[in-house]
């Protein structure tokens, strides 16, 4: 079994290889280490190896880790990548740097209202459902422009980009078409909002494809921290 530092290096190598194959600078693709269900000690190990951006899915679990690591790992950027219920929005507004899963105006307004004034605005990605699966959260692509317009003016938030979780399929062509659809939508939105710089897509199994389709931030859990217990 490799150490977390070794696994991290392998993921950086995969990102660099994928970027090189499509002529992109590797520095254009960030790595979000997804530490959900993993102990704070694993986050600290990745931090010691240079990792600074971490993604979490469960608000209370994340807040416990954020508090535990506040003094030893002070410059971690915490990203919420799991679904967000209104009753947890205050905890999120007070503890996170980013939320990738905004898909309703009501949640965006609550996050903006609840963001403490002494903190920088909360960075936001709108989650888009590119597969059209009814069970999935996220906006339909056609709804993105209208929500972006409303979110862009909220003072506690900073709209940074789009995020998606494509269909769970092994068919690379289906995946590619869904990832490219998000990339095209992102490019159209970035013309209107030049501040948008984050296209959050790609996970352990599909990060090369996501990089080839324009991802600027891959979210990788298993390939860094090992498999998760269900
Ligand atoms: C768990 C999770 C990931 C990481 O998935 P791996 O397959 O473990 O790399 C990425 N994005 C989201 C939204 C997740 O929930």
TrEMBL record:
<protein>
    <recommendedName>
        <fullName>Pyridoxal phosphate homeostasis protein</fullName>
    </recommendedName>
</protein>
<dbReference type="InterPro" id="IPR001608">
    <property type="entry name" value="Ala_racemase_N"/>
</dbReference>
<dbReference type="InterPro" id="IPR029066">
    <property type="entry name" value="PLP-binding_barrel"/>
</dbReference>
<comment type="similarity">
    <text>Belongs to the pyridoxal phosphate-binding protein YggS/PROSC family.</text>
</comment>
<dbReference type="InterPro" id="IPR011078">
    <property type="entry name" value="PyrdxlP_homeostasis"/>
</dbReference>
<comment type="function">
    <text>Pyridoxal 5'-phosphate (PLP)-binding protein, which is involved in PLP homeostasis.</text>
</comment>
<feature type="domain" description="Alanine racemase N-terminal">
    <location>
        <begin position="28"/>
        <end position="228"/>
    </location>
</feature>
<dbReference type="GO" id="GO:0030170">
    <property type="term" value="F:pyridoxal phosphate binding"/>
</dbReference>
<dbReference type="Pfam" id="PF01168">
    <property type="entry name" value="Ala_racemase_N"/>
</dbReference>
<feature type="modified residue" description="N6-(pyridoxal phosphate)lysine">
    <location>
        <position position="36"/>
    </location>
</feature>
<keyword id="KW-0663">Pyridoxal phosphate</keyword>
